[in-house]
Amino acid sequence: MEKLIANLAQKKSAVIVVDVQNDYCHPDGAIAKIGSDVSAVKTMMPQLHSLLASAREHGVPVIFLQTNHEKATDSEVWVSRFADGVNPICHTGSWGAEFYEVAPLPNETVVKKHRYSGFIHTRLASVLQTMRIETLIMTGVSTNLCVESTARDGFMLDYRIVLVKDACAAFTQAEHEMTLKTVDTYFGMVADTKQIMSFWQQQGAQAPQLVTT
């Protein structure tokens, strides 16, 4: 708990919700259709909902990262990870790109991204600087790709990183556990939702923090 306090106490934090979208999370989404197991998403969603409710109650900003892919951003290198060279995931304006069982409030920021990391070619850094954020509380999918990539870049840009292990999901448990170990060793720390919500409760209710849109 001491490490968590060091990362949250007297630090302005934001909850970062990464790619909780139909194509990554829904049983009928693109990831499930190509054979990945999305069942871990269902397990983590109650904890994510609880964390978001607590963050909003205690005035902690919530920022949503939303993947959007289209011809303008699907470079030859980027789509080379698909055997047929066609990207089936999160096409701009599609059902697959819509949020899955979460919804930003009108005053919450959505940052659209086109790569694994939320910092690459996006306005995330500008938003965080404007809000004077110091600690990123990382949630979402998948743990070992977009969540980890964003966490790594955030750490190297001098943000404190708290990865919420029960509010993230990967498509295998091994991949999930691998990222937990990596982040906890090299890029910040790992905590669970109960620890974070307990900290906020002990701090008491606060006035809502500035949120830009």
UniProtKB/TrEMBL annotation:
Domain Isochorismatase-like: 13-195
GO molecular function terms noted in the UniProt entry: hydrolase activity
Entry annotated with the keyword Cell cycle: no
Gene3D superfamilies according to UniProt: Isochorismatase-like (3.40.50.850)
Keyword field contains Hydrolase: yes
Record's keyword terms, sorted: Hydrolase
Family statement drawn from the similarity comment of this UniProt entry: Belongs to the isochorismatase family.
Protein's name according to its UniProt entry: Cysteine hydrolase family protein
Organism: Paenibacillus xanthanilyticus
